[in-house]
Specification:
Layout lengths: L4 E4 L5 H12 L7 H5 L11 E4 L5 E13 L5 E12 L8 H11 L9 E4 L2 H8 L8 E3 L9 E4 L9 E6 L3
Parallel strand pairs: 4-5, 6-8
Antiparallel strand pairs: 1-2, 2-3, 3-4, 3-8, 5-7
Length: 171
Amino acid sequence: MSDAAIIPLDAIDPALVEDLLDRAFEPERRQRTAYKLREGTDWLPALSFAALDAEQHLVGTIQCWPVALTDPAGRRHPLILFGPVAVLPEAQGMGYGKALMTAAIAALSPKAQLPQVMIGDGEYYGRFWGFSSDYTGGWTLPGPWDPARLLARGASPAVLPKEGMLGPWRN
């Protein structure tokens, strides 16, 4: 990944981002539960990044989204959904995804850090960034999901409700 650059995602043509996501996850990606989690919301520009290779070609992206965990009493608890983390198939294993995750986490405000949530490999995202399924066992999602892959992290994820429905943040 030498001579690569991590830049704000909003500097990239949205059509290029969509093409990259299609190549990384197939066009059927829009049917996944993760898309229902962010339906009707816009990604957060301050936490979303693109990776460019040495030739300045787009090879990866990360988008972060506002979501909420609605507890059984109807209270909404805001969180930040990390993902998709997408890297072109031919560029995977070169450190782009790790650099994108690190950039997004580094961009979080230490003064008002919301807990973060993602759907991903617990061993990988736990080892590098402290994501865990320890706090999400009683959560539900608006579609099928593997409970072991629903991960959370934050300054104090234990303050989140033990039960609730995760969905888009809407004012």
